[in-house]
């Protein structure tokens, strides 16, 4: 007769650390919701005592995994949750699948291209492809830049729920400056993101580095959440129009990640990935 080790029996019996189980369920539930949620709704939907829910939310807030919106009395994911998502994205499969897409984009437009993910109020660059005879950019792999100033950051911020953007940028203190240009307060950022939502394309003009311009398009997952953003950057004396190419690259990456189906010859969905 085989003997099951004590630790294996514990795993089979179910979660032995209720607080850890409840914490992870809260984070997963918030991640699946399109907007912040009231604590009472969390307690009800997850079957967790209300007092326990408040204690867990307070701990998560202290570590930056959730944010409290006092005027709405609701809770949403915080910047530390974005850090976890960005950590996964930096590893696999986003960087691996994104690298050939970004290389092909740079070849197509003849300008440098890159792929970035959100990390708190920053964007983190995970793929960089410099075009032939083009100058080096600040957007090298591993570099962080303020999301509100970059085209990639604006593309992703515009795809987030508005309440989430308000939580990330509650006041003027949340805004940093590089070249003296770009939004410096919440109302100005809202205006920028309104244009991005209208056109589907984010831009920046000398707000990251003087003399350079960028366009970007978000890469969205199954739920519409911005998993990353694709961008092209060029010098102002050059005059390309890479918006369509950037949008094509973003859609192709969505296909390769399994976020959207390819269209067959007659417009029907096709699940086979390239």
TrEMBL record:
| Boundaries of every IclR-ED domain copy | 80-259
Which superkingdom does the taxonomy of this entry point to? Bacteria
Q: Which residues form the HTH iclR-type domain?
A: 17-79
Q: Which PROSITE patterns match?
A: HTH_ICLR (PS51077), ICLR_ED (PS51078)
Cite the SMART domains for this sequence: HTH_ICLR (SM00346)
Alphabetical list of Pfam families matching this protein: HTH_IclR, IclR_C
Please indicate if the UniProt record lists DNA-binding as a keyword: yes
Q: Which UniProt keywords apply?
A: DNA-binding, Transcription, Transcription regulation
This one is known as IclR family transcriptional regulator
Q: From which organism does this entry originate?
A: Microbacterium bandirmense
